[in-house]
Structure formats: structure tokens, C-alpha cells
Known about the structure:
By secondary structure, this protein is α/β, with parallel strands linked by helices. The protein is built from six helices and five strands; from the N terminus they run E-H-E-H-E-H-E-H-H-E-H. It has a single domain (2-148), classed as HUPs (Rossmann fold, 3-Layer(aba) Sandwich). Strands 3-2-1-4-5 form a five-stranded parallel beta sheet, with helices on both faces. The longest helix is centred in the middle third of the chain and has 20 residues, at 45-64. The radius of gyration is 15 Å and the shape is globular.
Amino acid sequence: MKILLPTDGSTYSENAARITKRIGNEHTEFIVLHVLADKGMGMKSWQKEGADLILSSIEKILVEIGFDSSRIKKVVEEGNAPAQIVDVANRYEVDLIVIGNQGKSGLKKIMGSVTAKVLEISDRLILVVPPNYTFSQAEESSTLVQKLH
């Protein structure tokens, strides 16, 4: 299985990374993506360094929950976040996009604007992790599922 984890450095993205413990196994490959807004001036070195720190924090979470760092690819793109997320998902032929969300208002309150747009334009399977979902809930759910089997 190949999972795309788009990240903006938020706790919502970190929650999305943590939930993959319930989904993945030792063969799972991860594409961790950070998209920089395209301001028409090219990527600056400080933006790239910031993006690398954000990607490394997600990689660290994935390794802490048991995934092999050699199966994690970090990608930085520039442009419109939803379009880049879908493009990277297609380019790497991912099986699943796991994305965190944050509330604003209206539809954006339910899903967040980037998440809502990705759902609108992607034909890939997408798991949206709610902002209040915690890793401890994931572990409890996983234990419950194992007991049911």
C-alpha cells in the first residue's frame, strides 16, 4: 500500500500521520508532501528549509509508530495545495490520501478548504481525520477491532 500524507505542519497533519498506524504495515510506503504557495518568485532557500523541517517532523512520527524510514519519501512542491496534492497522488500512484482537517465555517467548518477541494477534484480514496480525533482513540479502536476478530 502507498499512502500520501499531505502536511502543513499543523497538529491536524500530525494526527493524520499517527492514524496510519491502524492502516499500514511493514510494507506500506509513504509519500509525505508539503506544498509551498506559489507566489511567482520561485522557492526561496528559507522556505525549502522550513518545508524540510515540517516533513522531517512527520517522518519522525511515522518512525516512532513503527514504520521504516527507508519507505518514507519526502516531497516539496510549489503551487496550489489541492492541485498539487492530487497531482502527487496521481504521479506516485498512491492507494490512499490521509489528510487532517481543521474547521472554519460552512463546508470549510466541516472539512477545511484544502481538504474539501481535494475531495472535490481527486479520484483517489481519501481518509479525512477529524480535528478532535486523537491517537489514543486510534489505539483504543485498533484494540477493539482486534478483539472483535
